[in-house]
Amino acid sequence: MQIADIIFPEKPLFLAPMEDVTDPAFRLLCKRFGADMVTTEFVSADALVRNVNRTVQKLTIAAEERPVAIQIYGKDAATMAEAAKIVEQAQPDTVDLNFGCPVKKVASKGAGAGLLRDIPKMIEITKAVVNSVKIPVTAKTRLGWDSDNLIVVDLAERLQDCGIAALTIHGRTRAQMYKGDADWTLIGAVKNNPRMKIPIIGNGDVTTAERAVECFDKYGVDAVMIGRAAIGQAWIFGEIIQKIRQQDGKKTEFLTFEEKKNILKQYIISSIYWLDLPADENIENHFDERLKGIIHSRRHLAVTPIFKGISHFKETRIAMLRAETLRELFEIIDRIKID
């Protein structure tokens, strides 16, 4: 499988862009467990052009996470093209166009999945960005606005004609948000359309290694993108790779419970250090910055599946999410044992 000049192994796995999730620390962690390509949090083209500091910081990428994509969203072709040029200076491997974000603050303003209601504008934006940069341009979208407008098969052809190098499809409509089951049949229809020549990446409800293998085998996609299932369990990439390469059909434990706890702790520490604290200072001396890192990592602690099934765990979970120091938080995590 290949996107422009980027060559991937057979059945590659991609990390989906997720706001407040796919920061550098998490991307590197997913890369460690085998993610073949990672994507930044999505970046507002308007804010990037205005040089908003918090948005510009999202362009930070590390050599160790390559290949890496920076995803942008917006509703204006000229602004998106200008933002793409700024992104290109950060030297990602691709720039990805967000045509799929369903959240109200994005879609209601005509960006993200909102562009599924204005296909001519989406095409205009795609052409403008492709013509403005030299790096490969990819796109991510959904099946359509709602169940009465399942337009992705035709849309995929039109986006390909604009010059994109690959297309990711989330198997839901904008109206579904993240509810219901992802429908991979239309993703498969796009992939099996003889007119399509670019790689098709499938996304949606891939929560187990078994499901990932099924999506590759049943729908023929070139790559599978993992989103929410990676939150709190970056090792899912390793589990899927183990399943794909498994020959004897036996399921072996990829990581122990204690190893998974330690990985979560390592991510929390990494999240804090990505706040660019002074190198010569003890991290414990920076309460405000340290607390920001702990708060940022709480999403992973809240949803990680490793604590599921532990009896009377509610009080422990609450305590973890309320902890304000590394020592307090790690002491709670260290005390957790499986029944």
Overview of this structure, please?
By secondary structure, the chain is of the alpha/beta class. The chain has 14 helices and eleven strands. The strands form two sheets. Strands 3, 4, 5, 6, 7, 8, 9, 10 and 11 form a nine-stranded parallel beta sheet that branches. Strands 1-2 form a two-stranded antiparallel sheet. α9 (209-219) links the parallel β10 and β11 (223-226). The radius of gyration is 20 Å and the shape is globular. The model is unreliable at 275-281 and 283-287 (pLDDT under 50).
Any chance you could write out the topology, listing elements then pairs?
Blueprint: E1 2-3, E2 6-7, E3 13-15, H1 24-32, E4 38-39, E5 43-44, H2 45-49, H3 53-57, E6 68-73, H4 77-89, E7 94-99, H5 104-107, H6 119-132, E8 137-142, H7 152-162, E9 166-170, H8 185-191, E10 200-203, H9 209-219, E11 223-226, H10 236-245, H11 257-273, H12 287-303, H13 314-322, H14 326-335
Parallel strand pairs: 3-11, 4-6, 5-6, 6-7, 7-8, 8-9, 9-10, 10-11
Antiparallel strand pairs: 1-2
